[in-house]
């Protein structure tokens, strides 16, 4: 049976990362196909207001880094616990690796999104 700390960390990490994940699914499955139909001229102003202003510049990184820290803390607590069954390690490690992978992917996407803040050239928006 996991320690109380490990159990609490699993719950906290799941809650925080699920908030971010649900937004990503919504964006990828619903918003991006819609924006592909409306074009970059409509997408850019929306994105400027939704993604690169307060509160998004605070909330998105806070969710991402909090989720990563909680996932890593869960791994550390799980390892220190030592009494866990071996199969339980896979989801604990996978969750931390996927969270870190999401942060790494964001290092490529974030500069592109931040560049939209000052970009008004339609051709450049379509290339970006």
Kindly describe this structure.
The protein is an all-alpha fold and 128 residues long. It has one domain. It is built from five helices and no strands. The longest helix has 35 residues.
Give me some keywords for this one:
single chain, 128 residues, mainly alpha, elongated
The largest pleated sheet is described as: none
What's the Cα radius of gyration?
18 Å
Q: How many angstroms does the end-to-end distance come to?
A: 50 Å
- Stretches where pLDDT is under 50 for at least 5 consecutive residues are none
Structural class call reads mainly alpha
Question: Number of DSSP helices?
Answer: 5
What is the percentage of strand-forming residues? under 5%
Shape estimate = elongated
Mean pLDDT: 88
> Could you give the count of β-strands?
0
Order of helices and strands: HHHHH
Number of domains: 1
Helices and strands in order:
Layout: H1 4-38, H2 40-50, H3 56-81, H4 89-116, H5 122-127
Quick description:
This protein is mainly α and about 130 residues long.
